[in-house]
Write a structure and sequence with these properties.
It is a single chain. The chain has 40 helices and 34 strands. The chain is an alpha/beta fold and 1129 residues long. The strands form 9 sheets. A 7-stranded parallel β-sheet has the order 8-9-7-10-18-6-19, sandwiched between helices. The chain starts with a helix and ends with a strand.
Length: 1129
């Protein structure tokens, strides 16, 4: 009602969006009519005309960029002048892109008309006949759609797409032109299933491919990527645009590089992300596969940017002793623990049933009745805390009034900060919090697994107390050291053991086979909860996957270390322009705008929807619900209609399959175990009387086409076996029926035992069913109930959005660091800004040495640091050092260091060049690359460079190669270690919430501190090596030949995968709930050793972000007040 009033006052956003797109439809159709009279050759020539218009519009920008890059190479420029030139280049690049977008808008109607006319001629004429060019002749050898006849090329309307025969018959509707315009403008086009989103994409893809900067079309799986590239490919290829698919080739192969250089590149979201990470690990520019990210269209955008975005892409490699794990050894203890808990819970549940039933009998004393009821409710609550997924418990909770008893008992024990909760948990061996996905051992559980032989098996030693005990009782200093080492070793072993035990407990208590994961090919594979597809390469984080592997008796994989990581959220935000298309984005419009600044435009259907969406049927138990579903399937099938049954898990799909087999009803199943049969199953699903059981979002991107006589019988019937947490998943399932005006129906069957109803359902439904005295098998059906369920879904969506946004806030910290380090790496790889980076490093180190030493008035420390970093003596006296301004000293030291570096490079060139000249003049016909060995006295490095280039630059190219290789080596090593530290920090900061501190703030502060330390160390190591390095041995031949072709980098030992953030999700969930319920009280946290009273420190105001620099004795009262926090000494 409120929405309707607001729409009347302010207007309907969707209608405003469509009104903005309508003029483009008219202009396109007007241009389309004019194209009917031109020849096929003239039609194809339109592409060249468009390219010329775009090229002319940005020629001045490209010329100016070229001139500026030439100017930047001058040795006479200082740091600030070079930086100003590169900033100007970046600014002109942005202006160029703005100019291109303006030009594309002008030619958009004409370009769309060309694509539409090409489609019409293929559909109506059966072919396109043009004078053959080199591209036609080349494609005739690769595509069955193209043939050469004399001087002509014939483009037929029949070809093969991923094994499916294509007979082109599609011409763009007006609504598809509107969708194409929305995609070009960088928006999300929501179009119903069956509205031809793949065809819609041909319009903006063609238009933006004319620019020549690459268009990426991203799909959710490799089948769709391969199919769509071959299905739509001939439309683009006829116009001279190149098309390829990265999923056809191996990572970092020459073929994949070629695929990225195509005008239009198809591929899966994961592969695009992994290629970006691998590109930031290569040591030669020839190894790069991706170009600058310009324009991308994401198919099924909600699945990619919402479902997949919170699980990071990870490139990982082996770690020392990564295969030394305790999971298999600890497994018997956990099995014993779980067995005892199950036995206890069964007893408690029986006790709860007996006492609650007795308390409801008549003729019992009120005090006794109250006592029985309270004891029974407590036993019920303990059963729920111990094993919330116990099927007997779930069944009992579906009985009248029982769920309300549980909720009241839970509320009692949660009040007053859950101070009574330990009493409730006392008899349990471990406690499960299902909503937050956490599990904790109780004292009783610790005693059970520790046993009498080793009572401290599961208890961490108190390090402070142990150290004090060793100091007090051990006189011998050497023995004290040995005892402390032994204590720390014991602590590390027990910490790892506790972690392994917790993960095993989760594996046994919270993760069910064929629900959260399946076991195939002797491996544990995660099932995507949204699509039901197997997530190949994805693993649960933090040892949980290894615990599940131990549980299922399959090979436990070795632990690995992260080398590079990024979330899809941050990967896709790198594109100049991003767009998406889906049938289900409207319910997530706020999230897509808040995170990606993507506006959702709901495009109308080509024909009105006539599907009958019926109200939900609500049953008390799952058994009643499934029996009703089987009866409904029998009833619909008897009318000759096909049925699609949507499930939320493998377990449910197999249960229904067994029930149908008992009834001897033929059917087909599509779930994670049968994923490879997806296309075949979906093709059969529209035939009369066919029963298909599939997960809710299976078959996305493949339409179910109705067989003969199905429309007359009533169309495809959709049956949902339960409501999903997300409304768009239910909308996706409904959308499988009723495509292009076809008849159909949809209905959801719900029970109070379903996850959504159990965890987030309204109490009113339970009370209503109890008051109405519903019997077994009876059902509630009303629009109010359906709306109530949708409100519950909305609450879950809001909670999930809070979790994802929280995760993004954490990842933004990593992303800013990743961007900075990858920019440095890119500068080193290409070499164009490397000299500027080296200048900046020398200046930053000079400043750091001067400021730190001057603050402490320590001239000796200053002299030591400049010898260690630059290998030079102090350029000024102690008196000058203490009296002069730090900025002047820094400038003077920087110049001295730069002069020293310049002298050293000239000396190396003069030593090496005679040898290089000799090799070039006498052996250049046989040698392409040369090896030049360098050392700083500790490390040795062999640099490979092109002989001709080194000769032409008189040795300068060899030194550039040295700078490049040294910088890349140190960046990669430091970044790898930094990622490990940041992983550890992220896990540890969540404990700050127990101290009433905000983990995100601490993560930002300490993350910045870690990154700054890493950058300082990396800069010092790079500059120290470059300053001190010499040719390896001037008495021997300094230069030797190298193989003519450089060996390719070996990525075979690296794993590309996705890590499921079960732990991070839980932690984010806790914090999201905490942030919504109460403000965080900030307390000071120390991020360094305690400074002396007169040492100067920097402090941060936690309320407004203000910083101050003052002596510690002045800062201490402010820090103790809780309003300020020390950030650096």
């Amino acid at each position: 009602m409120l929405d309707g009033i607001l729409k009347k006052i302010f207007g309907d956003k969707n209608q405003k969006d469509l009104n903005e797109l309508l003029p483009i439809v008219d202009l396109t159709n007007e241009a389309y009519e004019k194209l009917h009279g031109i020849s096929d050759d003239e039609l194809r020539n339109k592409t060249k005309e468009f390219k010329d218009i775009i090229s002319n519009s940005c020629k001045s920008f490209r010329d100016e960029i070229k001139d500026l890059k030439n100017n930047a190479k001058s040795d006479e420029l200082n740091i600030s002048e070079k930086e100003a030139i590169y900033e100007k280049i970046e600014s002109i690049h942005k202006q160029e892109n703005e100019s291109i977008e303006s030009t594309l808008l002008e030619i958009m109607p004409n370009a769309f008309a060309v694509v539409k006319e090409t489609s019409r001629r293929l559909a109506e004429n059966g072919q396109l006949k043009v004078i053959a060019n080199d591209n036609d002749i080349d494609l005739a050898n690769k595509l069955d759609a193209v043939s050469i006849s004399g001087e002509h090329a014939i483009w037929k309307n029949k070809w093969d797409a991923a094994g499916t025969a294509v007979d082109w018959s599609m011409i763009h509707y007006d609504v598809q032109l509107m969708g194409g315009a929305a995609l070009h403008k960088g928006k999300i086009a929501e179009m119903m299933t069956g509205e031809g989103k793949t065809l819609v994409a041909t319009l903006p893809v063609y238009l933006n491919a004319l620019v020549g900067k690459g268009v990426h079309l991203i799909t959710v799986n490799d089948y769709l990527a391969k199919r769509d590239s071959q299905w739509m490919g001939p439309i683009y290829q006829f116009h001279g645009l190149s098309v390829d698919c990265i999923d056809l080739y191996q990572p970092h192969s020459p073929e994949r590089i070629k695929a990225y250089n195509a005008d239009i590149t198809f591929g899966t979201n994961n592969e695009f992300g992994f290629d970006y990470l691998r590109d930031n690990m290569v040591s030669e520019t020839e190894g790069l596969v991706q170009r600058k990210h310009h324009y991308a269209i994401i198919d099924e955008v909600d699945s990619v940017l919402i479902d997949d975005a919170r699980t990071p892409l990870i490139i990982s490699g082996p770690v020392p002793k990564g295969d030394e794990q305790e999971y298999v050894g600890l497994k018997p203890k956990v099995e014993k623990l779980v067995s005892y808990q199950k036995k206890l819970i069964n007893g408690l549940l029986n006790e709860a049933k007996t006492k609650i039933a007795k308390s409801e009998q008549e003729g019992i004393d009120k005090k006794e009745q109250k006592k029985l009821f309270e004891e029974g409710s407590l036993s019920l609550f303990r059963s729920f805390r111990g094993l919330p997924k116990n099927k007997a418990l779930i069944k009992y909770l579906s009985e009248p009034g029982v769920k309300i008893h549980l909720q009241k008992t839970e509320n009692f024990y949660l009040q007053d900060n859950a101070k009574e909760m330990p009493n409730a948990d006392e008899p349990l061996y471990f406690v499960i919090d299902e909503k937050n996905n956490t599990i904790d051992l109780t004292e009783k559980g610790i005693d059970l697994i520790s046993g009498e032989n080793d009572p401290e098996f599961y208890i961490l030693p108190d390090i402070g107390a142990k150290v004090a005990e060793i100091e007090e009782n051990t006189a011998d200093a050497q023995q004290r050291v040995e005892l402390k080492d032994q204590m720390m070793s014991d602590y590390a072993i027990k910490a790892e053991r506790i972690h392994s035990m917790n993960q095993l407990l989760k594996a046994y208590s919270l993760f069910e086979k064929d629900v959260e994961y399946v076991v195939m090919d002797n491996k544990v594979k995660i099932v995507d909860e949204q699509t039901g597809r197997i997530m190949d390469g994805r693993r649960y984080s933090d040892g949980l996957h290894q615990a599940i592997e131990a549980k299922e008796n399959v090979k436990v994989e070795a632990a690995s270390q992260t080398y590079a990581t990024i979330t899809l959220q941050n990967y896709f935000r790198m594109y100049h322009k991003l767009a998406g298309m889906t049938g289900t984005a409207e319910t997530e419009a706020k999230e897509l705008w808040d995170i990606y600044k993507l506006d959702v435009v709901v495009v109308k259907t080509n024909k009105p929807i006539v599907r009958d969406d019926q109200n939900d049927l609500v049953y008390k138990t799952g058994r009643e619900k499934y029996q009703a579903i089987i009866q409904e399937i029998e009833n619909i099938r008897s009318k000759g209609r096909p049925v699609l049954v949507g499930t939320t898990s493998v377990e449910v799909s197999e249960l229904l399959s067994r029930m149908l087999k008992i009834k001897k009803l033929p059917h087909q199943v599509l779930n994670a175990k049968l994923h490879q049969k997806e296309a075949e199953v979906v093709t059969e699903a529209g035939k009369p009387g066919t029963v298909t059981i599939a997960t809710n979002m299976a078959g996305r991107g493949t339409d179910i086409k109705l067989g003969e006589g199905v429309k007359e019988a009533g169309g495809l019937a959709i049956i949902g076996t339960e409501r999903h947490d997300s409304r768009r998943v239910d909308r996706q399932l409904r959308g499988r029926a009723g495509r292009q005006g076809d008849p159909g129906s949809s209905q959801f069957f719900v029970s109070l035992e379903d996850n959504l109803m159990r965890l987030f359902g309204s109490e009113r439904i339970a009370k209503m069913m109890d008051r109405m005295g519903h019997q077994d098998g009876e059902v509630i059906q009303h629009s109010m109930i359906t709306k109530s369920i949708e409100r519950a879904q909305k609450k879950v969506e809001e909670n999930n959005f809070g979790i994802r946004k929280r995760l993004l806030e954490f990842d933004d910290v990593m992303n800013s660091q990743r961007t900075a380090i990858y920019n440095r790496r890119k500068n080193a790889l290409f070499g164009d800004k490397l000299d500027l980076d080296i200048d900046n490093m020398i200046f930053d180190i000079s400043n750091l040495i001067v400021v730190n030493a001057q603050q402490n008035s320590d001239f000796e420390d200053f002299k030591y640091n400049i010898i260690a970093s630059f290998g030079i003596e102090s350029p000024f006296s102690e008196k000058e050092f203490l009296e002069k301004d730090a900025a002047l000293l820094t400038e003077e030291l920087y110049k001295e260091a730069k002069d020293k570096y310049h002298r050293k490079t000239e000396r190396i060139k003069s030593t090496a060049f005679p040898v290089i000249k000799n090799i070039y003049e006498n052996q250049s016909n046989n040698i392409e690359n040369i090896v030049i060995p360098f050392t700083d006295g500790r490390k040795a490095m062999k640099i490979v460079a092109k002989l001709e280039k080194v000769y032409e630059t008189e040795g300068s190219e060899a030194l550039k190669a040295l700078e490049r290789n040294i910088t890349l080596a140190f960046i990669d090593n430091e970044w790898k270690e930094h990622l490990r530290e940041m992983d550890f920090l992220k896990q540890s900061v969540y404990h700050a919430q127990y101290e009433q501190k905000d983990p995100l703030l601490i993560y930002k502060l300490e993350g910045y501190e870690l990154f700054q330390n890493m950058m300082d160390k990396m800069n010092r190591d790079i500059i120290s090596f470059l300053m001190k390095c010499q040719l390896h041995d001037p008495n021997e031949q300094t230069v030797s030949s190298a193989p003519s072709q450089k060996p390719r980098q070996d990525f075979s030992k690296l794993k590309a995968g996705r890590e499921d953030l079960a732990q991070a999700t839980q932690m984010n969930n806790e914090m999201a709930q905490q942030n919504q319920s109460q403000p965080v009280k900030h307390s000071p946290v120390m991020v360094a050793k305690k400074p002396g009273r007169n040492e100067r420190v920097k402090i941060l105001n936690l309320q407004n972000g203000e910083t101050k620099e003052l002596k510690f004795k002045q800062a201490e009262p402010l820090i103790n007040s809780g309003g300020w926090q020390m950030v650096e000494i």
